[in-house]
């Protein structure tokens, strides 16, 4: 293995800067990668989470800058792409922290180019008025910048794709391909991730000239100092066990991963009910960028015992110091994500703990499945603690009964969970047909199950879906006055419409021939079927938009594609 002492090809000020930052030695991935990328090699780097990949590409980027011709207006030298805005911002901060320690920091200009902060017009204006040597960006906004009038890319010397497997994943690869098409062939390319997939072969063909694979893996795909447990629980056991774990375990800063945005919103409220002595934060991709960053900052700065409830939008790359426990409330739909989520702890040689809940014996196969992927885990035997399952159910159901809005949220959360479950890549382990939807519904605090195709032909479905003693749903009120008023208004309108319809039908019945009546009945049944199918399709669409994939994709698309700005010609012309 290469020496881990800081030195050549780093410039003397960089060696000093690393010591100032408290980094005595290079990590193994830095020792292997820096000479290659600072030299003339393209690299594909696969190294466990928290192993220091960020500096393994930032330092070579700075080294390379010193050898380039002065930057001309409207151009840039290095482009670093991250899949999410949070990660881009974090990388940008690390970069600037290093540059601040240079003898003349002003020699290195940097620009952060992501959606959710500046408008694209401002990004382009900044780019053109003060060309940055290094751009850190998310894909959608970057593409829009690079295709803007007067923006050139002929000086691009290095392209880095951080979390490359995610960037090259379905959906975003189109954007990345377009970006690649805009860059000069002569540049170097670096691909970095803790998990690499088959797409890499394509990128090697498309953009890389002399790729070297750097693989710094120990026996496992996760850091050696990370201990991973699994806990088995039936749906109704899960929350009491989870509360027991979160109350009794010793940790200071924890992250809990949930499968969808709506489930983060719902379980945040439920956990608040039970965990009064722990600070809770919640963050997901359907929140605006401002609150997202604010929450992350508050969580990072918090010195008390706290938990961040989130989705996979905060799974990759985020380096939050002192996270000592990661809970995966469910295994992620994409098994690769397991490693990224768990890797938010046990970073840079520190110890860390992670746990995942598995649904009873049904999902036990996941343990072997992950073992084959070099992610070993051992069982943690846990009971439901001070709360029996029945006590938990009583408490959550009476809480839901207090406000119809809570029931709406519980239902949406439950439906999005079922949809998420269907999307598991390891579909032989996670079989929705084997899920006990009735118990699952109860565990969500639902009072009455919705009509859903998955419940068709299921045994033991209670009459009319009631999971509690039937009660008058018409009098089930929203706690929020305005919301309740709106509900009553809608109800009144639909009742008078129904009454008018009934009057019309009665009249018709008395005047229409019998054969016509039969025909009309048939037509009405057909219309009803159509309506139901449409409702189911609409529901599926809604669930999809709740799913976490859309969460991350929102970042990729950067509102850019969504807003489809007319043409680049509309951008103002700036003084060059
Ligand atoms: N040479 C070093 N010595 C000690 N700590 C380091 C060194 N280089 C980086 N670190 C620290 O290690 C932590 C993890 O680094 P980084 O975020 O680059 O990991 P990563 O490999 O990119 O992880 P992920 O795969 O999760 O994105 C950071 O807090 C960083 O400051």
UniProtKB/TrEMBL annotation:
It catalyses: ATP + H2O = ADP + phosphate + H(+). Residues 487-576 are annotated as: Disordered. Residues 238-388 form the Helicase C-terminal domain. It is found in: Nucleus, Nucleolus. The lineage of its organism: Eukaryota, Fungi, Dikarya, Ascomycota, Saccharomycotina. Residues 34-214 form the Helicase ATP-binding domain. Belongs to the DEAD box helicase family. DDX55/SPB4 subfamily. This is ATP-dependent RNA helicase. The Q motif is unique to and characteristic of the DEAD box family of RNA helicases and controls ATP binding and hydrolysis. Its main location: nucleus. It comes from the Eukaryota. Transmembrane segments: none annotated. Keywords: ATP-binding, Coiled coil, Helicase, Hydrolase, Nucleotide-binding, Nucleus, Ribosome biogenesis, RNA-binding, rRNA processing. Its EC number is 3.6.4.13. RNA helicase. GO terms for cellular component: nucleolus. Residues 487-502, 517-526, 541-562 have a biased composition (Basic and acidic residues). GO terms for molecular function: ATP binding; ATP hydrolysis activity; RNA binding; RNA helicase activity. GO terms for biological process: rRNA processing. SUPFAM superfamilies: P-loop containing nucleoside triphosphate hydrolases. InterPro entries: CTT_SPB4, DEAD/DEAH_box_helicase_dom, Helicase_ATP-bd, Helicase_C-like, P-loop_NTPase, RNA-helicase_DEAD-box_CS, SPB4-like_CTE.
